[in-house]
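Table 4 source record.
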Amino acid sequence: MQFLDDSLHPENQDKVVITVAPYGPEWMPEDYPEDIPVTMEEQIQKAVDCYEAGATVLHLHVRELDGKGSKRLSKFNELIDGVRKAVPDMIIQVGGSISFAPEDDGQAAKWLSDDTRHMLAELTPKPDQVTVAINTVQMNITELLTLEDCAGTTLADPVFRAAYSEMTVPAGPAWVEEHLKRLQAAGVQPHFQLTGMHSMETLLRLVRRGVYKGPLNLTWVGIGGGFDGPNPFNVMEFVRSAPDGACLTLESLMKNVLPINMMSMAMGFHPRCGIEDTLIDQRGNRMTSVEQVKQLVRVANELGRDVANGKEAREIYKIGTWYDSVDETLAALGMAPNRQPGVKNVPLRK
């Protein structure tokens, strides 16, 4: 992405789109009973509370009544329907992992089968987005999740930590292509959650091949353990390589969340918060998802950036926009065209 001399001026930046992830599937309700909703009514109300605080994108997971992450698409349909009726302008973004929580003590934390994950394209009512990973990678969230950070939670238990330390994200080439095909056919926008430059490069190759023809909403996920670490140099390399027409959100883990979000908003990009990312503030105190949203609203105001409402967020994310050809996609994303026969040197953007 390019930065002009006035790119850091708030009047030249989009309004801030705040994503909230308030369901935290890696935690159990007893880890933070004040802020982990369990009943369907509580889960819907959590979305409403976050929206009223200023969040316009809901990263959605679902729980069963026993507190465990749900793997039933019927439960996802129920929550999506409830949220859609309660806050119709909120962008509903289904977490593409569905639920990666262990079923029982000592069991590995695994994502669901490829076929089940493909069925996210068939959810009814239809979500606005489903998050999509690119390239299979290790996802050891415990690498940066210290025992001090998770004191008093189930993730302080060595058995659970061992299960989560071995988690991987299955996102091989055949699965990615089929998943993108199904999402596009259903009119559901993928939101790409990228683990680093290798994921970015693979995604851009898919765009150039015409596997994906739509807006690029990207989240850089700096959580370590197989993903990029929360290092500003990693962030800036990702930003530098992102197409000019992409929409960027930055995401991290625990005490890294606020600094990464502040960097993101200062550069004109967007933040993500919620208990899926952190249960604590910078001093180690418990912090609810709503409190985190309100904090980001305050920071955005200090930076001079207005916070987008639901309709404005949909425009920024280009929800419902699709392109008819590879050339149209490349042009819309501000990418150089594919090389044509006989073209020498670097193909120039029009």
